[in-house]
Amino acid sequence: MASQSRIAAEVGARVLAGGGNAVDAAVATGFALAAVEPWNSGLGGFGFMLVYSAKKGRVSVVDFGPVSPRGLDPAAYPLIGSGATTRDLFTWPAVKDDRNVHGPLSFAVPGHPDGLGLALEQFGALKLGDVLKPAIELAEQGIAADWFLTLKVATNAKELARYPTTRDIWLPGGHPPVTAPGVPLERLKLKGLADVLKHLAKTGRRDFYEGDIAAAVVRDVKAMGGVLDAEDLRGYRARIVEPLLADYHGAKFALAPGLTAGPSMLRALNGLRGMRFRRNGPHADAFLAYADVLRQAYAERLATMGETADRRDPSTTTHFNVVDRHGNMVAHTQTLLSVFGSKVVLPSTGILMNNGIMWFDPRPGLPNSLAPGRRPLTNMCPVIALRRGKPWFAIGASGGRKILPAVLQISSFLVDHGLSLEDAFHEPRIDASEAEYVALDPRLSASVHKTLAAKFSTRLNELVVYPTNYACPSAVLRDRRENFGIADVMSPWSGAVAEGDE
Predict the structure, then answer these.
(1) What's the CA gap between 256 and 245, in Å, rounded?
(2) Buried b (16+ CB within 10 A) or exposed e, 236-256
(3) Which H or E run contains 156?
(4) Model confidence, pTM
(5) N or C: which end of the chain has fewer CB within 10 A?
(6) 94-141 tens-digit pLDDT
(7) Pairing label, strands 244-248, 251-255
(8) Where on the phi/psi map is residue 499: left (φ > 0), alpha (ψ -120 to 50), or beta?
(9) Alpha-carbon Rg of the chain, whole angstroms?
């Protein structure tokens, strides 16, 4: 079990040790993250889960992606002109009051409870109430106010202060929470979260969409001036769809389809398929090939699928992977989009809502333009790779546009260069998701720097904790009957946990 949050990974490992399968562990982890890494994902968000079923011998995709409210009016998001752009993840032309970035008009319909519940029903062995118990316990305990939490809150304090319930929880006394030196870590209680989880455990996933929780959500949204309504929630359905499949150098990749980074990953793999790299790599020839295919994939993506650039701190999603003793495997990505999503905590339920409307281009007449009842283009890229018909590795990342370059390169390190999982994660990478330049980790060899600089404008970007310059990947790998896992080496809360290790 490998996750950006070791605490959440420990939840999954305990479920595995107790007899649950990989999907049971994934669902328990997905809900636990709402309590221990709440700024990245939770009940108010969405995502995609890839599941390899050992019994069926195939991969399925659980799509619980975002959908815009049916009452959304594009005219309610007028551009302010003057060349101004948004001050968050994407460089869209700025909208009046940033209402597509934060606040009640930025909400897309949340898919998280329905998606995780559907995955459990179709592929799990446990009941929803059982897998929710660890998340409830963590929510009742409260989140520890360590240095990383203080950093996350402090860097978003101005936006968090906009909304009363959010401010009361995350800025106690008007300031970011800080634990004094030499004392036990203070605990921050996420008001309402434990009660909502308990209610879901009793009533089931659809209560979020058709029951008491839905009614409370709609009341709060209406009082705030939002347009997400009861019909939006009642009409939302997570769905199980077929993956995209790509044969690549002896491996078969299963990718999320549709408005994800899966189609762009497929294009990049196709671009690399005819290449054979120098032995004992990766060397400069490999990184030049990665830069070429990634730039081509992004050029096609921007022209036909409608996404724009992402130049700010992208660590706003979470990804984890699970493999169990039977060979079942999960790659799971979930998000609120921005850090702390819309910055709005609903007062009646304590649900931190997404700002999924920001995925849409506010300019009319384009492939990804704002529209009611529509799915936007996202960057999520969970992957499961098979070898000789058996699951080999599951991988994904958080990091906005930087997700695809990270997943592609690490996958190639494993497939093309025969690196171990540990060595693949410690290998320096490039990022070629920007149109203007290719970013290089300074630890790459002088040969790589020289080769790429001869063809592209390049920039040195350090691998640091903050900001996340090269995405935040994690993976699990199965070699015969032995399982391995690893999480991002620069993420301070991440961890890989085996049964019995927690």
Answers:
(1) 9
(2) bebeeeebbebebeebbbbbb
(3) none
(4) 0.96
(5) C
(6) 999 999 999 999 999 999 999 999 999 999 999 999 999 999 999 999
(7) antiparallel
(8) beta
(9) 21
